[in-house]
Protein 1
Amino acid sequence: MKVAKRLVSFSLIMWKGIVLSVVLGWATVVSWVALMSTSAYLLSYAALHPSVAELQVAIVGVRFFGISRGVFRYLERLVSHNVSLNLLAKMREWVYVALEPLAPAGLQDRQESDLLSRMINDVETLQEFFVRVIAPPLVAILSTTSVVWFFGRWSWQFGLTILGLQIVVGIVIPLVSRILGKEPGQRLVQLRSKINAAAVEGVQGNAEIVMFGEKEGFLQKFVSVEKDYDHTQRKMNVIQAILDGVSVFSTQLSALLLLFAAIPLVNVGNLDGRLLAVVVLGALVSFESVAPLPKTFQYLEESIEAGKRLFELTDQIPIVPEEGALLERGEKIDIEIKHLSFAYSQISDAVLNNFDLDLPFGQKAAIVGPSGAGKSTLFSILLRYWDYMQGEVMLNGQELRTLSPEAVRSVFGVISQSTYLFNTSILDNIRLGNPKASLEEVKEAARFAEIDEFIQSLPQGYDTYVGEQGGFLSGGQRQRVAIARAILKDAPVIIADEPTANLDTITARKVMEKLLGLSSGKSLLLITHQTHGLAQMDEIVYLDGGRVVERGTYEALVELKGHFYHMRQLEKDLLPT
Ligand code: ADP
């Protein structure tokens, strides 16, 4: 119930639209009942051959209600869909705003496809919440009250019969439907998410599935979930069909019961004979307001399940809080790290142990070491993707933990190993670094990254689309676009995680020399596996197992003949100088 309450209070942000659409829904039903009643009256009266003048009022009534029903229905659909779509847009925004601070630390344990399914399917399921769950019961309560009051004035038996059968159709059948539909309803939502997950995995891992001959296995898995889905859907449909039948039967039964109640009244002269058909037809169509209620309960079940899944995600507390102080002086950043220790979770081993680094503004430091040493982790901490537990990280004397992640990220130009490129033009992708940059500035950044010449050679130049995740570009080209993007940002500190890993040796060296040549007005923190060019670094830190095992200038480390020296020797043996 808590979930339903939260969904209702979320919908109430559009309460004016909701009230209007409910009133319009009620007016539609009332017009329909009035149309059938006046038509029945007109026909019954006309059978007695009165003068046309006596029929005038009824004729006008039929015309009026015939038109008003259509107009009210149209307006009701217009308003209710407007409310629905607005709520959908607000919900999408709300989910995104709630998810953003969770990434990446809070979302890494979740499957990408499951996240997608929650963001798309569950939100779409909730789109129905207003139109199918909130509005129909309110319209039904208003309409039933009006109809029972109207016919009840003629005879209490009419009122009671209509009320009783409308309760059966509007409450008893929905309750039975809820009880029977609960389990398959929940299962359908879960299975839909499973199918999505399997489909996304199938598309993304298509190459691997084909390459490793897993096609059959994958298909079988997919088909078995589909079968389960079909089976559950069929079960749901059978329940629905039976209940629909009972609902139609009860509606028709009302006509019969009302006839039984009305005929004796006509016989004894307590009811005008011309009203006999009015009672039967008017009451019959008044069931229109309760007819959608069984579906309401079914949608309620699905909505609660979808709401639960969404709230579970959005209620997650971000590992790194969004709020924090602003950086007081953001133009020149001095970084000072002291005794920093970090583990990804309380039960896992420390990935960084007692790490120190001093990087005054304008200096360059390189972090080298074997894979898994904790180098990228250090970057994640600096960018406030994760929070550290022990030690100090100071930016201009302000503790990193107390700063807002947004403020922190604004001072770093990041070149990561796997940069995401959006499915738009190269120009827009580079401009992400600085949306206000001119074309000339973008080109300058691209020249820096050694990619300008390639872009110019493309038929559409900077307007070339890069495809999904930059799929139209090679790994090296993507990396250079990422470098151009980071350079364009013009942040005081560049942090680069193996920026040249995917480049050929000659380009890699050119790019590295340029990065190292960023002498004035920027600091550089570089993770690299290559020793080439590191002679220009103010400090090189050799990290192994999260601990600093060597540190110093290039000459000092070469002289030491330790880990760094061996790394350099290995590289010399492998690569041309
Ligand atoms: P490097 O960049 O030096 O190759 P990383 O900082 O990526 O090393 O990883 C250091 C250690 O932390 C590795 O043992 C890795 O398995 C672990 N690790 C990295 N990222 C995560 C993560 N998001 N969650 C849990 N463990 C992680």
Protein 2
Amino acid sequence: MKSSFRWYGDADPVTLDEIRQIPGMRSVVSAVYDVKSGEVWPEESIKHLADECRAHGLIFDVVESIPVTEEIKLGRPEQDRHIANYCESIRRCAKYGVKCVTYNFMPVFDWTRTQLDKPGADGSTSLVMYWDQMKGLDPLKDDIHLPGWDASYSQDEVRDLIRAYGELGEEGLWQNIACFLKRVIPVAEECGVVMAVHPDDPPYPIFGLPRVVTCEENLDRYLSIVDSPANALCLCTGSLGCFPKNNIPKLVRKYSAMHRIGFMHLRNVKILPDTSFEESGHLTRNGSLDMNAIVKALVETGFDGWFRPDHGRMIWGETGKPGYGLFDRALGSAYLNGLIEANGGTIE
Ligand code: DNO
């Protein structure tokens, strides 16, 4: 399998020089950040990422993410133009060596947490979602500013979107997913790109918004809409794993054996008695997931796609983008390398 590391481009406090020194590191996972979502990615920005990575002995072959706009997800009038632009961005990325594109279909918000710097007993900090910090919040009445949410929406815009998704409902969302996949997957196939959908994080409805990329039944449905190896999963263990009914090693084994995992996000998560959760260190003993069973499932099914250590804690006084510091993610990577080697797997 291929070891990778997320990098937020030239503005990231973590540098490519640092990333290349992580043992076994091969690929960089990045995106073009200076374009409004829905518009086509300029070739020169993609080329710049590829050139920078190459100059540092690394390969830019995974994109995370080309955003799927609310217009696409809601089936609004701009849907058609945005999907056409999406396809063109895929073609351009492929031209510069990208082989896997990660995206999500979460309405309005990407991941949801209530605090990004919760101190742990050892003095590290991490991202958490505590129900008692969410309780009583009504997005249709209250102004809500949860950390990490897109601040470019005004509270009124958020309310309009939430109402629109309420009317759309889950089946409406499925229809718009189908419309997206049926146009995008053939383009991905043509250019040798695997599209890897990231699960909803957490994988259940938030504020009544429909969320469907959540569990085995729905993952099966998602993959069957276009039954192609290019329609694949970014199986994020921490996102799916904070819902106790999702048996992560079993899901990994199943979808890897089907060759429908393009990308693995590997991290642990600790589920609390009221189903709140904390992002823990990567080790099995730190959280609720059996990380060795997950890696074993990948090795035994011959997974040859990309993996990256997902969110790390902030340790050793590092500051930066919550979840995306260098130190703890690098430790996570070293731990994962160890599990892969001990299970007889290979890192390209
Ligand atoms: C969180 C990430 C997600 C992921 C998107 C993919 O840190 O794993 O934001 O990049 O959901 O589109």
